[in-house]
Amino acid sequence: MSARTAASWQTSLADLSLILFMISAAAISRQQDHLRKAKVERAELREAPAAAPASSPEGTPLAVYIAAPGAPPLARWLAQQAGDPRQRLTVAAPYGPASGDLARAMSEAGRLAREAGAAGREARIVVEPGEGPARVVLAFDVAASHGAAGAMARTLLERRQTPGEGERPR
Q1: Is the model more confident about 30 or about 159?
Q2: Does residue 16 have a pLDDT over 70?
């Protein structure tokens, strides 16, 4: 074997080692930056005042009814909407900080839910801090709350309740 052949594979190996070193150094540097940012964010969260609660999660609205003065009856609005078993009707009633606002919001939400029930639609009620009139939202968000997640939970519970092969019953 000549010295020239030995030097070429050694040079290639040195080049690959240098490339590996540079990639590792870059990855560690990014990881350190990420850890520093996370540490700063945690410190800011400890110092920041408590934020207002986030509103409840909803799907993308297909149609929104706002219970404002002069709005058509909810039953008429619901009759104009296409029915689909995957849709959920949500009555959202905001309330303010004043005494009695929560009771008024709950009363308004109950009234709208009863109107929806009379029109043949089941509604969930969400009463949350906020401003503005009550609203009724029609969205495809049933699968997110009932469908796949509920089926998964039931499946896992059933598996846990029935002992598998070689397991003792609990």
Answers
A1: 30
A2: yes
